[in-house]
Amino acid sequence: METAGGAVRISPEETVSCAEMIVHSEEDICICFHRVYAQLLSRGFMPEKLFLTLNARRRDSEKNVKEKLELISTLCAHKGIALFPVAVQTLYDQRSVSMLMQGHACKKAYAPKKGDKICMAGFAGCAGTLKALILKNDILKERFSPFWLEKAKKAMITDNDDIFGAVSAQEAFMQPVAEGGIMAALWDMKERLGCGFFIDRQKILFRQETIEICEFFDVDPYSFSGDGSMLIVCSDAEKISEKMFGAGVPFTLLGELTADNACRIKKKDEESFLDRPAEDGIWKIADISWKDKEEDLL
């Protein structure tokens, strides 16, 4: 049995991916769904079945639970995935969703090698930014205009569909960016490949809204959930770049795989080594109250 980054290979032909998330909004359900979907497709497995557990709050209405189940059913139907018997529990005072998705092998996945280029598709930190916009809207609206907040929220709603439409796991090695952000994704990539790399930290792509919100809450944007973006390792970065450009996906070259096991990160004239991932920045934001930021806002 092989495990890596939320995906478990149960046989040469089958793999399952899993994710669990506290649910504050419909966007959380969508992020969770696309996370397990990306984990499978990026490894060359075609998603087939979704097994779901939904934990509802005791005071949630039947209509509220039904709406969430209908949303998940719609997501599955759109991707051609069978939704299997659903478990709905009312054991906690906090909503959460647990998803386990199963897929079968398509074709042999791309095998990276020394000298391959490490690229990034999409913007880092979008899922974390979206969560912050939803969780802390009452604080953010005191600093940012309603128009800016709404525009930022729409910009952060994303998935991996355009990326998977442009490149497959047979053409390139793919590592989804998810909980823990881009640095956690680099760590997971290192664990899966078992080799070192060199990247330029300043080449990592962020939306300006992510930078501003992280600065406001004093959170590291590199630790922000990045669902919707992807690390891509390939031999022909120019070819993949053309495909991403055609699909309208932001794309950049970060670095390359190396022969040794060192994971080196360049920042301006300094060089450091990859550390074990820190806790996702959204957990720090979740603990911030209006009282904590009141002095900054005045």
Protein topology:
Layout: E1 2-4, E2 7-11, E3 14-22, H1 26-41, E4 45-57, H2 62-79, E5 82-83, E6 87-92, E7 96-105, E8 117-121, H3 126-135, H4 137-140, H5 146-156, H6 161-166, E9 173-176, H7 181-193, E10 196-200, H8 208-217, E11 230-234, H9 237-247, E12 251-258, E13 263-267, E14 270-273, H10 281-286, H11 290-297
Parallel strand pairs: 4-5, 4-6, 10-13
Antiparallel strand pairs: 1-2, 2-3, 3-7, 4-7, 8-11, 8-12, 9-11, 10-12, 13-14
Helix pairs in contact: 1-2, 3-5, 3-8
Protein model, in words:
This protein has helices at about 25-40, 60-80, 125-135, 135-140, 145-155, 160-165, 180-195, 210-215, 235-245, 280-285, 290-295; strands at about 1-5, 5-10, 15-20, 45-55, 80-85, 85-90, 95-105, 115-120, 175, 195-200, 230-235, 250-260, 265, 270-275. The longest helix is centred in the N-terminal third of the chain and has 18 residues, at about 60-80. Mean pLDDT is about 90; it is low at about 1-5 and about 290-298. It is globular. Strands 1, 2, 3, 4, 5, 6 and 7 form a seven-stranded mixed beta sheet that branches. Strands 9-11-8-12-10-13-14 form a seven-stranded mixed beta sheet. By secondary structure, the chain is α+β, with helices and mostly antiparallel strands.
